[in-house]
């Protein structure tokens, strides 16, 4: 049974992460099909995943995307810098992450989840900007950020990641508070 | 129930290690038949094995080789040096380890597991070289590395290990990124 | 007395950081003239600076730029991600940082220091890419990276930092191993 | 003032390392001329060197090579494995390391230091074998081990180290107790 | 359920100690009948026994002697000196300890357990000598070491122990690697 | 300046060890001539010696033997077992150690020091027995214990120590309270 509803955008509910959700996260984090998209490179045990989300969570936000009470993905916001003492920590910019399981894709769940999270981020967290990074081969996510959500394409970090035997670029996107509007 | 699938090469799945797998590791690490091949010399308690794989995991990779959901062995990659501050730490070389339980041997499981791990190591971890050490009496492993997997025989470390009442040589193998090709 | 020489590029020596250098770092990190360029936003005590460079050093490299035995600035390389378990940790990309004190600027010390560090990073640390971020108002650094050192301009992160009463862009640069050549 | 005499082989004395010797170690560990030979890749502060030799000394042996009371180099023996619980820990094999400062080379100091240390290792530590690794470009050390000291060349670990912009081989040597004889 | 099998000599299996075995150890360590033979003089709590075998295990070897899966005693090897930095640490000599519960005595279990442990110690741990101490009144153990196992009687340490109202001698035995042969 | 006088036997004073005496101990512990007699096998730094005598002293007694205020050797008593919880800890037996520097030998200083320490041990520490171990080649010490001090020769521990290229026996001596008489 997933956690409590924190945000809603029909048919999506974004719910608090609970220990019971860990198997869902472990399976998808390690899944060879999902890994290029979730950005995991090393095997993650249940204990490791639990530590990441429960013991070391830091200043970020993680929510489980659910439909009809079943998890379909994960969304979150994380600070741009590992330590809050640098110039990047206090500046009102967070980076957004998002994944939907393969068999739940194609239903607009990613878009709905993102819309709910972005609205929350600007309205409740006083953010000025949300950024996102997407690997070059992830065309679905690139289309989601650029076309569906209206993020600006701010640059291409060449050869930022080594995966599947070669270097890949990372596309960098940004959305300012003033640029955001959504109708539901 | 074993952990999540991380790599696949039919009929092998390489899965994340979980606490539930510890009895399998403890039994095989201590088994008098297996010890000469796994390289254990002293009795290892459950607690000791758990500490090795869960509390002190360091920078290595350990995966459980499974067939039809049942464990048949262990594969892994470990850094060549205990500390990353030495000249050996940043150089893109890791050492591969592998064992298959006696009653699962002879089915090509070791070869399949190794192929999946090697491809992952070169394609996702940006390694330049994978090395392996095999005791002289372990003819199956020597054949696996030299003939099946195409490792180069780089040297014989004379009398590197004392076992079963006398000294034995250790054969040292290496496989460079450019030397690796596998077809499935 | 500064630490031991680690890299040389006449008239610059890049030396190991020692506890004796902390007052120099503390002064410049807090200096109102320097802060917009070093990227510090909050007051840093001596203890905090010591912790950063000596107790929490992590996987980065920090070197004191000196001329005739006197410190004139700081250069360094840091991993793109706080933890090596993510997709960014094993990919051969590090971010370069550099500052020169105001009264030592204009002598090419920054360029010389950068050249020594970059050559070291590609030749000894097996890096594939060095990245750098520069605030939009820091024209000297932008010229240094783009014109003197040959970094590619990979993007403009709009409104990434709030400073001096308004948002500023951050310019993102990258230099691949194959793009680097220096003659002394 | 160097530490106490532990071993002698005229004109060399091998002395215990003391805190007063740390500046000598720090300077040579970081020296750009020496680093390819000492095997250091990252800057080492005084504190780091002190921790290595005094706080984390483990089971190894480190001695300062001196002539007329002045340090000219460092020799040592270290276990082949970071932990004594593995098959490599109890086997009577240690790895020898040795460096002489550039301006003291060419006087046979390395050979004399090695002879004293090897005799001690076999006669007092009950070792069965001493191994050594030498980078391919270090012809002086290769000649020392192969010709002067009588080590057997046991193999070439191809591309084991990345340095100065390319991969280099490491030559692996071994000397068994029964192979050692020295006359003074 | 006892731990994993580490050594076998029919009908004995020597198994790794697990936390589940602690009650068996606690009971026998404190038993008034057993204490003169196990060498305990002070009451030992469960916590104290656990600390001895699990938290402070040091460099020794402890194995549970079992018959048909049930524990009948304990065998072990311990270094002669608490610290490896003394002259006794590197010399290839360990001391053997052994006890069998009263109701399991008289079946040759002690002899079988000792034979398995001694063969392991000489063949896998590269020991040169195994020593043993036995109180003068423990005639069964004295017969076991001298007659059954072939240890040499090396001396009598007069009045080394005060027990049951008077001083007792301790007999000191030794077995060299070259003196050991067993047929099964 | 040596520490306070604790025991006297003309012309010897046995004085408390002070930090100022550490250089004397370090020099003699490491001295290649002395090491076979003091029983040290590995280099001992000043810090290590300080830790042994000041930070980890345990339950033993260590006194500096002095003549005319100058140190000529060291005497001590140590418990037979590393832990006081075993049968050997509470039994009134301690082991005596003693060394005199080479240039002070031949004056009866060892005998006088031993006599003062033994009398103290029986009279003030309620010991029942003092034991001593001497390497076979140390004829001076064997004569001292057997002939001058009246210890009983209780056994020969064959091949207990590896030194100078071969195994040596250790002679074991004991002196009971009732056997001790000295006239000054």
Topology:
6 copies of one chain form a homohexamer.
Chain A: E1 5-9, E2 12-16, H1 22-30, H2 35-38, H3 46-55, E3 61-67, E4 70-79, E5 93-100, H4 109-124, E6 129-135, H5 139-148, E7 152-163, E8 166-176
Parallel strand pairs in A: 5-6
Antiparallel strand pairs in A: 1-2, 2-3, 3-4, 4-5, 6-8, 7-8
Beta content of chain A comes to 35-45%
What is the end-to-end distance of chain A?
27 Å
Number of helices of chain A: 5
Largest sheet of chain A: 8 strands, mixed
**Poorly predicted ranges of chain A:** 82-88
Q: Let me know the number of strands of chain A.
A: 8
Identify the strand order in the major beta sheet of chain A: 1-2-3-4-5-6-8-7
Tell me the series of helices and strands of chain A, N- to C-terminal. EEHHHEEEHEHEE
The helical percent of chain A reads 25-40%
Largest interface, C-beta within 8 A: A-C, 35 and 36 residues
Mean pLDDT of chain A: 88
Structural class of chain A, by secondary structure, is alpha+beta
The backbone outline of chain A, from C-alpha atoms, is globular
Radius of gyration of chain A over alpha carbons? 16 Å
How would you describe the oligomerization state of the chains in this entry? homohexamer
Question: Main attributes?
Answer:
homohexamer; 184 residues; alpha+beta; eight-stranded mixed β-sheet; 8 strands; 35% strand; globular
Protein model, in words:
6 copies of one chain form a homohexamer. Chain A is of the alpha+beta class and 184 residues long. Chain A has helices spanning 22-30, 35-38, 46-55, 109-124, 139-148; strands at 5-9, 12-16, 61-67, 70-79, 93-100, 129-135, 152-163, 166-176. Chain A has an 8-stranded mixed sheet with strand order 1-2-3-4-5-6-8-7. Chain A is globular. Chains in contact: A-B, A-C, B-C, B-D, B-E, C-D, D-E, D-F, E-F. At the D-F interface, strand 1, strand 3 and helix 4 of D face helix 1 of F.
């Amino acid at each position: 049974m997933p956690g409590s509803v924190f945000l809603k955008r029909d048919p999506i509910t974004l719910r608090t992460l609970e220990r019971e959700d860990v198997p869902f996260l472990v399976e998808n984090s390690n899944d060879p099909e999902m890994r290029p998209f979730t950005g995991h490179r090393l095997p993650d045990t249940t204990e490791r995943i639990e530590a990441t989300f429960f013991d070391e969570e830091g200043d970020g936000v993680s929510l489980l995307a659910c439909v009809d009470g079943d998890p379909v993905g994960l969304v979150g916001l994380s600070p741009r810098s590992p330590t809050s003492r640098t110039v990047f920590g206090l500046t009102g910019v967070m980076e957004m992450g998002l994944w939907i399981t393969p068999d739940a894709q194609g239903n607009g769940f990613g878009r709905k989840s993102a819309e709910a999270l972005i609205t929350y981020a600007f309205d409740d967290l006083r953010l000025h900007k949300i950024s996102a990074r997407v690997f070059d081969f992830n065309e679905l996510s690139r289309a989601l950020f650029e076309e569906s959500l209206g993020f600006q394409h701010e640059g291409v970090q060449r050869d930022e990641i080594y995966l599947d035997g070669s270097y890949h670029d990372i596309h960098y996107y940004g959305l300012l508070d003033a640029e955001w509007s959504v109708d539901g």
